[in-house]
Amino acid sequence: MKADRHWIAAILLWAAAQVAWRFAQGPSLELDEAEAFYHARHLALGYNAQPPLYFWLQWAAFQLAGDGILALALLKNALLAMGGLALYAMLRRLRPPFEAGLCVMALGLLPQVLWEAQRALTHSVLAIAMSLVILALADRLLRGPGRAGSGLWLAFGVAAGLGVMSKWNVALLPVAIAVAVLLRPEWRARVSPSGALCALGAALAVVAAPLWWVLQNPATAGGSLHKLGIEETAPLTRALEGLGSLASAWLAFCGLVLLVVIAIALATRGRARWRPDAQSRLMIAVMLAGAALLAAGLVAGGATEVKDRWLLPVALFAGPVAALWALDRLGAVGRRRMAIGLAGLWALAFALLPVSGWVDPGYRGAGFPQLARDIDAAHPGLPIVTDSMWAAGNLSMMLPDRPVHLVADAGPGPALWISGRGDAVALAAAQGRAAAAQNLHEMEHGGERAVFALATEG
């Protein structure tokens, strides 16, 4: 269908434009890019607190496009395009091209997608893509007529496993789907016990090796657990703090969606009550089940802090659901205005990306090219050891023929020690190494000044 080709082309062209636009945002890597570049230079079952799939894919992109900004931008935007195409394909089963395309654009009502995913995120970008693929497969499983075959169940299990390997919190999504399915008789009737077991087995097989690595490296793999804010306070106090933080996270994630829904509801009051279609019901049920599971998990685990991006696997569907509701409520003129408004949001974000790179926070405009030139001139060939992931990723890219390591990965022998905390001599001494001749290198990013201390050993 011609309209389908236009929407598919629009999604792919947007991704291609973002790849090209990345080069206007600065020559250096921001924080997540630097982490991806540093770790993706080699393959391993695990690297840090994040699951390994994004780094594996980034390694593959490096083999195809070389080690540089092009490969970083290609992977991120290919994943965003994959997620958009998966959502479009799912919605086209029930909706015409214009409505399906508008729902993909409605992902832009979520700041984590519109801004953060395009500006900085890596693992969460993969989580977005896999969450949309998982939901599209779940919709196929529940669509009928009859029960789905084993091949579709296998695909769902593999996608669920890959989702968990994109970001650990994506495990919430298939569990929320299972809870939502169990609560509706018409969905339960389409579940094949053997198919469900096949999906579970496939998911476990996919995540088995990385989970084994986690069990073997609990300190490294659990490095971000402190973000949960688990405290030794009264259980009721912890529960109330956790639920309050969860509510705030939902508001932060879906705040723009709520504002748009309220505005449209006020402008169209008196219209008939909305009757959501099967796909809308599935997305709503998954969000509600996910919210309930998160609340129960917070209370049981004693966590008191929730970041809005942690809700991504289930809150992601708020934008498309709101768009489906609005499309069923608005007339032709209202739909056109909605399309123009969403297009304007995406265009504004696109235009502001270089501001993020060069001005605030300005990580991509930081002076790592000059630092790399200075190091190359003053310390030719000397391996680099640093406590800064930001520096490790950037210097790995800009000095490709030189060994660059984080402190935990450092080997024996002379090295150039670089500390982002201001004292490279102390950094070396903490590792039982002697370094001297410290000097400071300052660079500005945004309105801030980063200071790196350099000291030589040997």
From TrEMBL:
Keyword Cell membrane: yes
GO molecular-function terms, A-Z: pentosyltransferase activity
PANTHER family in the record: MANNOSYLTRANSFERASE YKCB-RELATED, MEMBRANE PROTEIN
Keyword Transmembrane recorded: yes
Subcellular locations according to the entry: Cell membrane
GO biological process, one term: lipopolysaccharide biosynthetic process
Principal location listed in the UniProt entry: membrane
A single cellular component GO annotation: plasma membrane
Protein name: Glycosyltransferase RgtA/B/C/D-like domain-containing protein
UniProt keyword list: Cell membrane, Glycosyltransferase, Membrane, Transferase, Transmembrane, Transmembrane helix
InterPro entries xref list: LipidA_mod_glycosyltrf_83, RgtA/B/C-like
Domain of life: Bacteria
Membrane topology of this protein: Multi-pass membrane protein
Transmembrane annotation, as ranges: 69-91, 98-115, 121-138, 145-162, 168-184, 196-215, 249-270, 282-304, 310-327, 339-359
UniProt feature coiled coil, ranges: none
Residue intervals of the Glycosyltransferase RgtA/B/C/D-like domain: 50-213
